[in-house]
Design goal:
The chain is an alpha/beta fold and about 280 residues long. The protein has twelve helices and eight strands. It has a single domain, classed as Glycoside hydrolase/deacetylase (TIM Barrel). The protein is about 40% helix and about 15% strand. Strands 1, 2, 3, 4, 5, 6, 7 and 8 form an eight-stranded parallel sheet that branches. Helix 3 packs across helix 4 and helix 6 runs antiparallel to helix 7. It is globular and about 50 Å long.
Length: about 280
């Protein structure tokens, strides 16, 4: 029986172009998961099209605390109405109780928006720029998932892997090691609340247009975890994208590579529940 891994596109609803790319890849069977940014206005318009993939792919919340505007006022975190950059958010969440309370409220609002427009609970929760693992944010996410959903029904994405696996892949090693350090203890904290996680993670990229993404896709399956998840960032470039996100030029390259991608022998693209069955 082929071994399954999750291939997850981040940033659904960031822009129309990014979302259309992801919908195309899902329809072609080249992805098995995507995370939605439910604070973006495109979410309301595109959730119905994404809902067609319910039960075929994992559809989750891509918690967004660093891009564009929150769903409601956050006077400490976003005093001018725009969410902060990651470098500002992390220390603020760590030192400010008011910020943590606002973040907990925004986590709830983004989950509410997911449920309202998709008509059901998410399959998983993760974070844009991995914000869900940060001190001051992690607990709010864990508590919300444990409180809102039946035990084991929603998984949390763990963006860490072993040092040996990260080094063996030889792609964006520094970035992967940094996030793995920030995510230390996440899996144990989730397990204490009965929240499943993936086991093995890859997909960190230097976002270099000169680097063949097809080669990186193969590298992401080196030293895989027991329930492996690979993230990616495909998209069609539109006028809105450059105003919101630094990752622009590589998105169509990822889209093209994913459309042409065939898993290596013995592997198939699947949902996390498929990967967990093969452990």
């Amino acid at each position: 029986m082929p071994r399954s891994f999750v291939l997850c596109a981040d940033d659904f609803a960031l822009t129309e172009g990014v979302s259309r790319s992801i919908l195309t890849l899902l329809a072609a069977g080249k992805l098995s998961a995507t995370g939605a940014m439910t604070n973006r206005p495109h979410w309301r318009n595109l959730a119905g099209e994404l809902a067609a993939f319910s039960g075929k792919a994992d559809l989750g919340l891509h918690l967004n605390l660093t891009c564009a505007a929150p769903l409601s006022a956050m006077p400490t975190v976003a005093p001018r109405g725009a969410l902060p950059k990651l470098g500002e958010l992390a220390p603020l969440a760590l030192r400010s109780g008011a910020a943590r309370r606002e973040i907990a409220g925004e986590v709830a609002r983004q989950l509410d928006a997911f449920e309202r427009h998709l008509g059901r609970q998410p399959d998983f929760v993760d974070g844009h720029q991995h914000v869900h693992v940060l001190p001051g944010i992690r607990r709010a996410v864990l508590d919300a998932v444990a409180r809102r959903y039946p035990q084991g029904s929603v998984y949390l994405r763990d963006p860490s892997d072993s040092v040996a696996a990260i080094r063996a892949r030889r792609v964006a090693v520094g970035k992967a090691l940094t996030v793995a350090g920030l995510a230390a203890g996440l899996r144990r904290a989730a397990a204490r609340r009965g929240i499943p996680t993936n086991r093995g993670f890859a997909g960190f990229s230097p976002f270099d247009v000169k680097r063949p993404f097809a080669d990186d896709l193969q590298a992401f399956l080196v030293r895989p975890g027991r329930a492996h998840l690979v993230m990616c960032h495909p998209g069609h470039v539109d006028d809105e994208l450059a105003t919101l996100d630094p990752v622009v030029a590589t998105r169509p390259l990822e889209h093209a590579a994913l459309m042409a991608f065939e898993p290596p022998p013995g592997w198939r693209i699947g949902r996390l529940e498929d990967a967990l069955r093969t452990i």
